[in-house]
């Protein structure tokens, strides 16, 4: 029997380096068996996971997770919120009631409470000017003096005529008394008595005319001194000393205006006036009869607010057919003379008071025709849409008449990112911080 080691040694070196063919086939079969085993393990894990069975070991779990990753994860919805802290956040304000003063802003002009155009009532030459232009004058103060010489002479002549009439009347009265006594003694005729009585009546009439002439002459003499009929401020003088004036002239010598208080005339449309009267009637006042005393504030031409508060005291009785407006008049104290006649102002009239008004920032309201809507966060964070009944706009807020209750949370920030039915997280927003932000249009 030959030695195996010798047979091996006798094989060439090239043959020894190559693995035997049978062993190569066995290696490929082992690799194929390992792959089939891995597939079977994967199927087993999938079956166990579907049935809620036993937990796979660490090695199998790693293989399962590796095979499940990839396309399945990429297909997940991008907007799906995570269970913990993934809700959308919105800023809200809490609806609260407050006392609201409803006001109406109107354009107006300042007018003097009283205006007196000073004109001469007698003719003559201006002898003196007794006031300073632009100064305050009192009622009864002499402003101009017209040469009174002719009027003094006329008064003296009238007084003399009156004295003559008095003497004639006295003589006629004595004659009538004498004729009456003679008639009783049957010493004269009835005709003479009647003539004496007629003469007495004529004398009395002449005396009355003479006395009236005296009064006229005295009045003309007084009118030679031109006085102011009211307290106020004198305007520029149109004449100087030496000017000839007449009672029939149309040009005023000067104008005196009462500037404390002053009037402010504003124009309001007839439609707004009807609403103003209804609001005044709610306070038990009748604006048409001048009973309403609504407070009025003024904004001057330079934007400043006048420090004094006026009162509405008059409503026009006719509508201007050209503008469709009605004139309202307010009275303002003007101790410093800040308000001047003809000045343009903006009048803010207080029309009504709502003790429990609910106001929301305009950013929270979406207007839809005459009404609107808002997004409200209910208990649990659910967003709902509310239909609102709206009133007037007050500065940067809007009056809500119905649709939101006090204490509810209304969305003012982030409303475009959420929809009704979603659950959101909220954070409070300071209503003051909302002021000045742009109002978003469109529907919520």
TrEMBL record:
Primary location: other
Region (Disordered): 1-29
Keywords per UniProt: Coiled coil
Domain Multidrug resistance protein MdtA-like C-terminal permuted SH3, first and last residues per copy: 356-417
Bias (Basic and acidic residues) ranges: 15-29
Name this polypeptide is given: Efflux RND transporter periplasmic adaptor subunit
Family: Belongs to the membrane fusion protein (MFP) (TC 8.A.1) family.
Domain Multidrug resistance protein MdtA-like alpha-helical hairpin: 155-222
Entry-linked Gene3D superfamilies: 2.40.30.170, 2.40.420.20, 2.40.50.100, Helix hairpin bin
Location of the Multidrug resistance protein MdtA-like beta-barrel domain: 261-351
Organism: Pseudaquabacterium rugosum
Domain of life (superkingdom): Bacteria
Chain intervals with Low complexity compositional bias: 1-14
Domain (Multidrug resistance protein MdtA-like barrel-sandwich hybrid): residue spans on this chain: 114-256
Recorded coiled-coil stretches: 155-220
Cell location: Cell envelope
